[in-house]
Amino acid sequence: MYKNLSRGYLLLLLLSPLNVKSEEFILILKDHLFYPSEIYVPANKKLKLLIENQDSTPEEFDSFDLNREKVLYPARQSVIYIGPLSPGRYEFFGEFSPNTARGVVIATEVTNADN
Amino acid sequence: MRFISVILLGVLLNLVNTHAYADGIVVDKVYHPYVLPFERELEWRIVSHQTGSGNILAQRIGLGSAINDTMSLEGYIIGERDDNGDFGLAGYEVELRWQLVEQGRLWADWGALFELEKHHNSDVYEATTGFLWEKEFGKSSLTMNAFLVYEWGGDIKNEWESEYRAQYRYRYRSEFQPALELFVGEDFFGVGPGFIGLHRFNGQRQLKWEVGFITEISQSEKNHSFRLALEFEF
Hints:
The complex is a heterodimer. By secondary structure, chain A is mostly beta strands. Chain A has one helix and nine strands, in the order H-E-E-E-E-E-E-E-E-E. In chain A, the strands form two sheets. Chain A has a five-stranded mixed beta sheet, with no helix packed on it. The longest helix of chain A has 14 residues, at 2-15. In chain B, a hairpin with a 2-residue loop joins strand 9 and strand 10 (188-200). The radius of gyration of chain B is 17 Å and the shape is globular. Chain B has a single domain (2-233), classed as monomeric porin ompg (Porin, Beta Barrel), CATH 2.40.160.40. Chain B is mainly β. Chain A binds chain B through residues 3, 7, 10-11, 13-16, 18-19, 46, 58, 60, 64, 67-71, 79-83, 86, 95-96, and chain B through 1-2, 5-6, 9-10, 13, 17, 34, 36-38, 69, 102-108, 136, 138, 141, 171, 173-174, 198, 200, 203-204.
């Protein structure tokens, strides 16, 4: 009985919304620099970073804070799914140009303007 | 994709609940379901398994590389020292890791693992297949592996077995991420603490380390395992 219940619970978890539409944020990598280097995003939501590498060489997006690593192929747009993030700063950098290709995602609480 | 996730979960749960468990040292690496293109790695693993009757030491050296955006292939040479103190070549293994979904896209991340092992100087083969699963909870990550193993050959009884591994880690800092690990196999149910770390050098070069101290808790006899894995990515 307990086993069946736990299986059912896990099944429900998987059936819960898996492909919720994520808000998109665009980043450009050009001359080994990220534009913008600071991105403000809403906290506690799943997000999509669309990163366009306009350089002629590949780069590797790396962030321990965001727990993400992703190769950014040249002249191509790459997608990185992040979040939900707690409010705070999440640094990232390019592994091949760590001194120049740096940026930060800043997650902030969204306040309701009507309140 | 949702349908596939449900099917995979069902198989995983059945693997965990099956009564056939794998032989040998169960304590090993907990695999993450991610592959990076251009990734190449040199790996060394050591497991020291201490029981009341003695100590078994298993070591493996592996060299691997990503073969496309979602798959990596790694070959290993395995050595073991038995209770009599004899250390020698024990086997060879080839391993394919496959990242099935983009990290963070779904509720949890999925991957698959396929291994083929040949024992040295004996007619024993072992094929392993299973699922790699990971879910992020803020600064923590839960990783689970469920494997189905088939052993065959002239020097072994053909049989199906299963293994289950889990790791819960807190991403405190890249150099030190404390973890709790669980390993389930034939007559073995072990848990214990561990830690994971990472140091970056220039470019893609980085050194990863994993350490675990696992104690078998389902039986009263002494049964401790120490595991260490070093991976140099370049």
